[in-house]
Amino acid sequence: xxxTNPTPVLEVRNLSVSYAGNRALSVDHFQLAEGELAGIVxxxxxxxxxxxxxxLGWSRGAPKVTGEILLDGQPITALETPERVRRGMLLIPxxxxxxxxxxxSENLAHAASPANAxxxxxxxxxxxxxxxxxxxxRRNHLGGQLSGxxxxxxxxxxxxxxxPRVLMLDEPSIGLAPKLVSVVLQTVRTLVDEGLTVLLxxxxxxxxxRAVDRLILLERGRILAEGPVDEMKEDPRVADxxxxxxx
Length: 247
Ligand SMILES: Nc1ncnc2c1ncn2[C@@H]1O[C@H](COP(=O)(O)OP(=O)(O)OP(=O)(O)O)[C@@H](O)[C@H]1O
Ligand SMILES: [Mg+2]
Known about the structure:
Layout: E1 10-19, E2 22-32, E3 37-41, H1 48-56, E4 64-71, E5 74-75, H2 81-86, E6 89-92, H3 104-110, H4 125-131, H5 133-137, H6 148-161, E7 166-170, H7 178-193, E8 197-202, H8 205-211, E9 214-219, E10 222-228, H9 229-232, H10 236-246
Parallel strand pairs: 3-8, 3-9, 6-7, 7-8
Antiparallel strand pairs: 1-2, 1-4, 4-5, 9-10
Helix pairs in contact: 3-6
């Protein structure tokens, strides 16, 4: 889908993240247009999760973060994570996607739609079950009983209930069989085609290429190359990342 809003949904300027004085990320400029699916790819330790976490203002460690992050033109850098989430910055992390001791429907009910979603799309439970028929079938199963693919779907479904402005997915392909990776990414693609803005973080370059509009190659915390996926997939540096990841 082409951008309809001239103001980027998300804009990042001079973002730098350091852990104990070691620079893990340095991004001069990055932006996401409305209804775009952008993929950040790179090897282990390239800084992909660091980037997504910094956008959310959350981290496992205590990094020093400097720079500017704008959501719909509004600076959010000074905001705590819960406020960023309220504004629709939603990250589905690499693990711990769902509550294992709650059923699928309880997991969904727990992610209650915000009373004020600021005009963002709200997904009803019925719409979510239409999007994810496997979850509908398993609505009374416990989160802990789901397969990896189903857990990933439930993680996405829970995020949708919170009315994302930007949905960030950190390595949704991890631990999934190739066929399920395609199913998950095709579902994300469908959401984007309906207008959602998504930032996909993937080490699985091959799978990302099939789903995204634009590819950003991250290496040692820096953007090495970026562009429309059709151009980027011909870039030898992307092929290197691709071979590196499958080696
Ligand atoms: N909490 C932390 N404390 C210290 N260093 C960290 C922390 N988190 C990440 N790093 C370092 O920052 C760099 C980037 O890590 P990051 O987790 O962002 O990589 P990644 O691209 O997500 O890798 P992967 O594909 O393995 O998930 C690595 O060198 C990593 O060791
Ligand atoms: Mg990571």
